Each structure stands twice: as structure tokens, then as C-alpha cells.
Amino acid sequence: MATTSAERSVAARGAMAPLPYVVARKRRETRDVWTLELEPVDEAIEQIRPGQFTMLYRFGVGEAPISSSGDPELGFRLVHTMREAGQVTRGLCAAKPGDLVGVRGPFGNAWPVDTARGKDVVFVAGGIGLPPLRGAVYDVLAHRNGFGRVVLLYGGRSPGELVFRSDVERWRSRLDVDVEVTVDTAGHDWRGNVGVVTKLIPRAPFDPANAVAFVVGPEIMMRFAAAALIERGLPQESLWISMERTMRCGVGLCGHCQLGPTLICRDGPVYRWDEMRPWLEVAAL
Amino acid sequence: MRTLDAVITDSPVFEGLTQEQLELIGGCASNVGFEAGERLFREGDRADAFFLVRHGLVSLEAYVPNRGPITVETIGPGEIVGWSWLVPPYMWHFTGRAVDDVRAVQFDGACLRRKCDDDPVLGYELLTRFALVLVDRLQATRLQLMDVYGDNVG
Amino acid sequence: MQPVRAGSSVDAMAEVLAAADLGVLLGALGARGYRVVGPRVAAGVIQYAELDDAGDLPRGWTDEQAPGSYRLARRDDDAYFGYAVGPHSWKRELLPPRVRLWQASRDGLAVEEEETDYQPTAFVGVRPCELAAIAIQDRVFLDGRFADRDYAARRADVFLVAVECGSPSSLCFCSSLGTGPGATDGFDLALTELHAGEHRFLVRSGSSAGNAVLADLPTRPAARADLETAEQVVEDAARAQAGRFAAEDVHDLLLRNLESPHWDAVAERCLSCGNCTLVCPTCFCTHVEDTSSLDGETAARDRVWDTCFSLRYAEMHGGNTRPTTRARYRQWLTHKLATWEDQFGTSGCVGCGRCIAWCPAAIDIRAEVAAIRQEDAHAHA
């Protein structure tokens, strides 16, 4: 880091300027969860990988960090599934095909699916945690022979709040994938499991001595799921989660997303359990 | 098709019991089956049994006025349904219903209670194991209570 | 900790400038097209503003600082730089409080980025701790995967005239952190003010740009005595700070005491006002402000200073991950002294003492860390 007044390279197209994308398709997943499929108007962002996110911009309103929920094989189209949680996401969910949305990204790191090669793969998703995992599930299934048993455990609040039902049903109908779905609460018309998703872990058909797990959901659900997986003998280094914190810039320059020693937009959102666990144990860190 | 005794012996719930104790328990056990939709027990009835599910799913329901029957939990293969037989007033707190075709081992709770009265060591062993079942249920219920998928942070 | 020594590897370019000729330096900078910014007395403080000539400098002034207190006082000599630091830092120039990033029109969502319009500027009177602070912010804004465009543009156009410290305040602890009181690198020119005998400045160059300006000044080569006197100034300034802050192991100390009851004690005094973050020369948090015109046809994005003490800082769809003052104070101090290192490779603190002077509750981070250290020692006794 040398001298003053030396020429420092100025960044090319600024990391804070969104690119225009058009809403190509829109699909309602549940009462308040929508999937937008976006195509670039002109310039496209770099190929996004499962686990990464973009900052989606609703004109004049603001931005929100949304994980990719699309199939990595399907190239240039961006797929984002989001819940109407605030002003920006409500604005994005209200967009219609043909509307423009701003995109910055891809940011963050991807699910290390390669670390699961030759091993059993366990996906544990809670609620809106399934969208960030979907791309990784597609990836594993597209290269099915490279992995051992593939297990998906999905928990939602109630049957009406389960997302990607057709995907989940399709995966379940495969002979080489084990899928278990559970809900926290249900009425009489639900013929499936009722109970927390962690309950599905003790009986899930995988070998903890030779497996990798990818877990996404509300933080408390990830903590309980991790505890259950580790109790079954899964090594902490084989457990990956996805973290979330307030984000503003998404590029490691504004300070908001830090949690202890890490900047989530830069070092995450995918983390290995043993690296993140100590920081999750401190309240209000 | 395994024998009844083998199912009991292999179940993690009864792990660590002596052969004698297992036989005592086996003496109170029988195989049962329920068709999908059939009721195993009703909320409020006397609880003189518990079940070890072998196949299928059992749902625990409560009837809530205006909402109808709500499923609070489903219990699957290898799991125990029922701890009310062990604690007064020995009444079922929920209704148990077979979600699909269920095969289970039914244990005569009244019979077992008598045996535990005669053999406190057996009683202690069973209570300890059922305490674990209760703890598990409590943890899970608390998580459900937190409604983590709801509209709040985290 | 060894004080940073004056006159290190660039002895060959050490010259002496008479104090009366200080104005020639400012003039030489102006002649090269630099806008000159430096210290001047205004509003009861020594702040950074544009300088027209040497007469604008705070000659004969010093600052008396204590926790929660800053007062200007007259010196009994006519030193130009006989003070420590004021509430301003150079981040006002390099990371202005509000910067427009872009404007966009609704039609086609066409984004037009703002080009930084920054006149080349000479910073005069940069303290060694401030050189360190600039280097720390360089790592944040220039060395990551994404660089900050506006910061990079400004940074490329500044000329740094450092001035070593001869009058540290009671709050200074740069020597404990190795960020002063002497200047070793990161500057174009470095001055050390000498009073003993002739009022003069030792001038060292730290770059080719510095060499060029130095060549225009009526200097004479530095004699052995000049170099030794300058070294003495720095040594005295370092010795005055002895024992003020135990920097060893601060990172691990704070991170193993995140649940210390001491955080509750500080939280009772802290007003969560954020003054510390405003005056701190390394605090860099910003907020992205998206706005639109009344007719909805144009939108804009600004980058605005933010503070982790703001209640909304950690707001996240429907909740807040740091809802208490305790959580936010802990975040600020542990980031500054510990996790900054994990994130960017250096400490975030340069020991300038501003946060101590400008805290309305007179919280002294040196005392806070010492309290945690003591508690930690008892807990592990």
C-alpha cells in the first residue's frame, strides 16, 4: 500500500448502479410469496450461482437482497422468490410482466455443492428457506450419479404456506430422492407430517459419517436443525447454513451486514456451521 | 415380518432394559392395526394404553370451536404415542387418529402400571424413558409455539 | 511500543524550512492547482477548512481535551501546529456526508452515474494518526472486491502534507497503537515543527510529487542537529502518552467478554447519540438513500453517512437485531478494536481520542477497555 497521490484505479461501472431487467414471468407461490423471472434489457450481470443473491431495485422505492431461487443450468434468466415483508418487497411483488426492475449482483458466495461429491446430501429448509436451496437441489439432481443418497426435509408453517409444491412433489416422486415435508400446524385435510422440521432429522435416511448438509431457514430453526444433525453424528465442518442481516450496499462498503468478524454480503451468506456458531450464540450481536 | 418381541427389543425407547424387564413389558403388548381415518383414542377418554408405531402416521388432534379439528403433531414409525397412561389423571389430552393405514404395538397401560407398582426398578426405568419422550415433545412444541416462519425477524 | 521515528528512510530528502516561509509552501501548492485545506480556528474549535495563506493557520493556539470536553487555549509561543486534533477528520473530504451516486429515469430504468467532481486538494496538517486513518479507509474502500468509485476518485487527487505531533492532548494514545506520533510513510511531505532556537520545520518528502514541491521551496539541507531535535519532539510526544492504553491482546480480550456485565454499565451512560462515529476518522458506515421525484419520473440514489448507534441501523423486515443501547455500544467498540481486524486486517482505531472528547457522556474507551480487562483477569484468576 504505497504512496499518496498515486493513481488508484477507479472502479468501472459502479457497484452501486443497477442494471435494468424486465419481468418476464411472475408466479404466485402462496398468499404472500411470489417468484419473479427476470431477463436483462441489455447488459446482463455475471452468471449467478445457487446461494448467491442480488440487490433488486424497485424504481424510486429501494432495494432488497434476494437470493437466487433458479436453476443454474438455465443461464441468463434470473429467478427470485420473495415474501412481501416490507415496502421494497411489496413493491417488487406488485410488479407485472413487462415492468422493469433494477438488478445489482451477483453478490456473496455459493453453496459448496462440490464438497458433497460422493457423499449423501441433506437439504433442510424451513419456510422461505427453500428458495435459496432450490438451485442447489437442481444442481445435485442434474448430476445425480455424483452423490450418494439425496434427502430433502422441508418444514413450513402450514400447508397453505409451502412453496414450490410442484417441485417438491416432483422430487418426491423420484425413486432416488427422499423427501419429507412437515408443517407446524394443520387442519384435517392435511395427510402429512405435523411437527417441527427438526423432528424429521433423527429418522432421515442418510449416513452422518459420510454426508454434507445444507440448512436454510429462520435463524432459530437453523440452530435447532444444526443441533439435531450434529447429534446424529454429522461433523460441524459438513454443515452449511445461509445467514441474513440488514443489507444496504451488498458490496462490503457500508458496514450494515456485519455480524461479529464477518460481513455477510462479502464473506457469506453461505457459512460453515462451526465458523458461524459462536457468533449465533451471542444475543443481539 | 418381525416378531412382537423383536420390535420391542429393537426399539430405542426400551434400550438398556434387561431381558426380564423386556419380557415383562412384552407381556402387556399386542399387535394392532388401524385403517386410515380410524380413531385410536379420544380426547378425554381414560388413557390405559400407549402405542409404538411400526408403520404409518398417527395424528394428534384437538377440536377447536370455529376452526374444527387441528392437528398439533403427527407421530411416525419408531415413535411412541401416549404418555398420559403414566401420570394421573390417566386421561388422553388429544384425540389420536390414523392418517394412513397404521400398524402399531399397543401396550396395556393399566397392566404395566400394576407391574411397575410391584417392581419399582422397572417403574423407574420406564419413567426415565418416558421423561425423555416428554422432553422431546416439549422442545418440539416450544419451537412450534415460536412460530418461526411468521412475520418477524429470524 | 516504540514511538514512530522521524527521519527514517528518506533522510536524504530532509530539508529545513523557516517558519516564516510556511506560506511559500501553501503558495506552491496553490500554484500547482491544488485547493488547500487545513486547520483554522472557527466556531471555538480547530477545524479543517480552505486556507488562503499561512495567516489562516491556528498560530499560537492549542487544544485542552478531556473526556467530554474540548477547549481552545492560547499557547505562550507562536507554534503553527501546537494542538492535537479537532472534531473534523479528513473523511469529510474523502467520504463526504452526502454524495449523489446516480440519477435514473423511469423510462427504461436508465441509470446515469454521477461523475465525481473533485478539485485536486492538498491536505495540510495531517497528523500521523490521520495518515493511519486514511490508510485504514483505503483498505475498506479500495482493496475489496468492489471499490468505492467516489472515494477512489477523490483519493487519487489528494496531496498529503503531514505534520508530526509536538503537543498531544491528554486523550491521545497513538503511540500505544503504533500510529504515531511520528510519520513514517503515506505522505507526500512531512513536517516537524521545531521551536528550539530558530522557529523552523524539518521537511521530508515521501513521494515523487512531494519531491517536486519540495524543490520549489526555499529550504536548506537538514543538519544533524535538526534531525535530532525533530526526533526528540516525537519521542517527547510519545513519552507523554506512556501507559494510557494497553493494546496487547485487545482483540481476543473483547471477543471473549461479549457477555460482560460491563457492557450494561456503559449502556447506562451512553446516549446512543453517535457523536463518536461522526468524529471518528475511520468510521465509514453509510446508508443508501433511494428517493424519487414527486411525479415519479426520476429517481436518485445518495450515499449518506450513517451510524451504528442509529436505532434503524440494524432494522430488518419487521424487527431489529440490535434493539438496545447495550448491543449497539458493544457493536461499535468491538468492531473498532477487534472485529475490524478480522474484516479488514488492521485495527479500526488510531488512538486520536476524538470519541473521548466529543462524547457528551464523557465515556473514555481506554477506561472501558481497562475495566473489561480487569474483570477478565478476575474471572480467569
Overview of the structural elements:
The complex is a heterotrimer of chains A (285), B (154) and C (381). Chain A is α/β, with parallel strands linked by helices and 285 residues long. In chain A, 19% of the residues lie in helices and 30% in strands. Chain A folds into two domains: 89 residues, Beta Barrel (Elongation Factor Tu (Ef-tu), domain 3); 130 residues, Nucleotide-binding domain of ferredoxin-NADP reductase (FNR) module (Rossmann fold, 3-Layer(aba) Sandwich), CATH 3.40.50.80. In chain A, the strands form three sheets. Chain A has a seven-stranded mixed beta sheet, sandwiched between helices. A six-stranded antiparallel beta sheet of chain A has the order 4-3-6-1-2-5. The N terminus of chain A is likely disordered. Chain B has 154 residues and is of the alpha+beta class. Helix content of chain B is 33%, strand content 29%. Chain B is built from four helices and eight strands, in the order ααββββββββαα. In chain B, strand 4 and strand 5 form a beta hairpin. In chain B, helix 1 crosses helix 2 and helix 3 packs across helix 4. The mean pLDDT of chain B is 89. With 381 residues, chain C is α+β, with helices and mostly antiparallel strands. Chain C has two domains: 230 residues, no CATH class; 130 residues, no CATH class. Chain C contains 13 helices and 16 strands. In chain C, strands 3-2-8-9-10-11-1-12 form an eight-stranded mixed beta sheet, sandwiched between helices. In chain C, strands 7-6-14-13 form a four-stranded antiparallel beta sheet, with no helix packed on it. In chain C, strands 4-5 form a two-stranded antiparallel sheet. In chain C, strand 9, helix 5 and strand 10 form a beta-alpha-beta unit. Chain C is globular, with a radius of gyration of 22 Å. The N terminus of chain C is likely disordered. The chains are: A alpha/beta (285), B alpha+beta (154), C alpha+beta (381). Chains in contact: A-B, A-C, B-C.
Q: What is the overall silhouette of chain A?
A: globular
- Please provide the count of β strands of chain C: 16
Largest sheet of chain C: 8 strands, mixed
The largest sheet of chain A, given as strand count, sense and whether it forms a barrel, is: 7 strands, mixed
Number of domains of chain A: 2
Distance between the termini of chain A: 32 Å
Assembly type: heterotrimer
| Rounded Rg of chain A | 19 Å
Low-pLDDT stretches of chain A are: 1-11
**DSSP summary, beta strand count of chain A:** 15
Mean of pLDDT of chain C: 94
CATH architecture of the largest domain in chain A: 3-Layer(aba) Sandwich
H and E order of chain C: EHEEEEHEEEHHEHEEHEHHHHEEEEHHH
